[in-house]
Write a structure and sequence with these properties.
Strand content: under 5%
Low-confidence stretches: none
Oligomer: single chain
Number of helices: 3
Radius of gyration: 18 Å
Number of domains: 2
Strand order of the largest sheet: 1-2
Number of strands: 2
């Protein structure tokens, strides 16, 4: 489980790059962002929304801020701090 948790950020980063940039595939073919399927994109979006939801929830209930206690103190001392938008998951089309 720990190995998966450590690999997740790198895998998500590679997936974001694939969704944003044209690149050469392993056989030398061009891979375009439009080639990413709904089945590939859906879990990426869900994972990002889940991560954001946890972060917003932790900040709202004053748990230890994921970026550390110093950041938590600085955020608490910022009177004009804008509020983060509430997480909104997309409505997935029926398969």
């Amino acid at each position: 489980m720990r190995r998966i948790a450590k690999q997740a950020p790198d895998a998500r980063h590679r997936a974001r790059l694939k969704a944003l940039y044209v690149a050469r595939g392993p056989a030398g073919e061009w891979q375009r962002p439009a080639m990413m399927t709904r089945d590939e994109a859906t879990p990426l979006i869900s994972d990002a929304m889940n991560d954001y939801s946890v972060l917003v929830g932790n900040i709202k209930v004053d748990l230890v801020h994921p970026l550390g206690p110093r950041v938590a103190r600085l955020l608490e001392q910022w009177p004009e701090r804008p509020s983060l938008p509430a997480p909104r998951w997309p409505r997935w089309p029926s398969a």
